[in-house]
Amino acid sequence: MSSLTLNVRDMVDEATAWRNKGVTAIPVVFASKRPMVKWTPWRERNPPVSLLRLWFRKAYPCNLGLVLMNDLCVVDFDEIEVYNRWCSTMPHLADSYTVSTSRGAHVYLQMMHDTGKTYAFDGGEIKGSGIVIAPPSLHSSGVVYKVLKKQRIAGVVGIDDLGLEIKHEIVVRVVDCERYATNGDSIVSRIKRANPIVDWLNQYTTVLQRMDGTLEAICPFHDDKSPSMLVFPGEARCYCFSTNCRAHRSMDVINCTALMNGISNQEAISLLSRGVG
Asked: Considering the entire predicted model, what is its pTM?
């Protein structure tokens, strides 16, 4: 199932299914990894279903993030070749619940020891803290996270049982809610307030409201025959789903201005900052 066909009920059902497994699901900014709600209070307990519904209905369209809690960890393989080699050496763990990512795979495991920490190995990370993006989310590259293996989540005693050569521990910077963490006085913030993404796009195309309340537009960055651009005013961003389009990524008004005029982002900031107080 792609993010284009996913609706609010699907997202709530997916979040509820993870809650029933003892894992907190939170809304994440669409096509990104930035949390939209304060999630640190829920690292040791689950939110009520009513709160999950409120989160995802207000945030939709959005990605789905899982809070790594209750001994859940994820082995993040940066490349599919590294993952395939690991599977051949650790077949008893390779059948655990697995997700395909933009470049590699996420293997979900229950770890009795070494929990709450994140480690680096050649070709990826073992994530025991923070948030992991889960299906059916959309990566910023346009790739949809998909379930590769639906088997139960396998259990391991500790990090030494993973068959990976650990390089060092990684200190994870906890970002509780990116939506409210931006510097409201920065020139970039002032530019975005002075140039709403919908107003900017309406200079080149027409932004329309869909039946489900989301916004779409004929993409101005390629020869678009039908609306393939989604617009998110609340996040001040847009995204084209055409894989051959230059705007096939999450973009704000600065990125759009740079792309439309063939200039750098820094030059776009200089251009848009004129007259911005």
From this structure: 0.71
